[in-house]
Write a structure and sequence with these properties.
This protein has helices spanning about 45-55, 70-80, 90-105, 120-125, 145-150, 175-180, 205-215, 240-250, 260-270, 270-295, 315-325, 345-355, and strands spanning about 35, 85-90, 110-115, 130-135, 155-160, 190, 215-220, 235-240, 305-310, 325-330, 330, 335-340. The protein has 12 helices and 12 strands. About 35% of the residues lie in helices and about 15% in strands. Strands 2-8-7-6-5-3-4 form a 7-stranded mixed beta sheet, sandwiched between helices. By secondary structure, it is an alpha/beta fold. The longest helix is centred in the last third of the chain and has 24 residues, at about 270-295. Helix 4 (about 120-125) links the parallel strand 3 and strand 4.
Length: about 350
Amino acid sequence: MSSTPDKHQTELHPRADLGSLPAYVAGRTVPGAVKLASNETPGGPLPSVAKAIADAATEVNRYPDMVSTALTERLSTELDVPTERITVGCGSVALCQQLVQAMCAPGEEVVYAWRSFEAYPIATQIANAAAVPVPLDADHAHDLDAMRAAITPATRLVFVCNPNNPTGTVVRRDALVEFLDAVPSHVLVVLDEAYREFVADPDVPDGIELGRRYPNVLVLRTFSKAYGLAGLRVGYGIGPADVITALRKVYVPFSTNALAQRAAIASLDAADELLERCTAIVAERTRVADALREAGFAVPETQSNFVWLPLGDRAMEFTEHALEHKVVVRGFAGDGVRVTISTPEENDLFLTAARAFP
């Protein structure tokens, strides 16, 4: 007697290694709780930006400009960089994946600090490249000497997240220049500057300026953070023209949508007003970090829009404690907790929770 095949059974076999692929964990959203888990800015788009988005919405029956011509030209003018050295992507995280796909053959190596942006190991494995994580130093910052020592003839990419996510720590000018001088010319150094607009220390270098000096440097930036467009997903990269050409070849067509492109241009028009918000966040960052230290927490220096609590094995305990106080933070098991800086009122709610942690 034959049985009816189960229509849900399949003989299809996805890549076996995807079973070990680390999942990207987004910050949780809990109804009724303050969300400080995703490094979002607390203010919504400015009225001028919201109007640009609404105007673009009337044209969404048309495909977007696949190469983001208007935004690329605007960035070229703003940053004094030729258009052939600029690419736009669906957030800088998508550009991270494109970089590994474009630069690495299977088995070739990608070096990055750890803990750092959690997309790096994911993008590396998806592209069948080999991940080479290098532990942060005792100050929770990039150990550039160890990263340099980790480079081999098989290395194609090095990610330097500056400021680093999730610790907020930075690499300063002299150390980074010394590192770049030592990196072999066949290795592309990617300076991931997603939080550049929150940097208050003048000794933290501008990656775009370094890119004018070093032909193997590419800089990533985004409109998600300081410009408040996290929900629209638009970022950009500035680097060597041949690398930019390769990135465009692995780009998912039309993935930077029309609303995102228009909103990014409108945000550049309103940059001064938006960057005033960054100044307010930097002031709150200092206040929150000082209050946490007074409460007995070890808080590394941060130049981003978040603070890092290196709580080690108590990280998830603190995360659940904060949630009990209606505050959502981002815990990294065994390492620490990242807390986004928000409005004074929301920051005070978090500080109340933190002071109550046993």
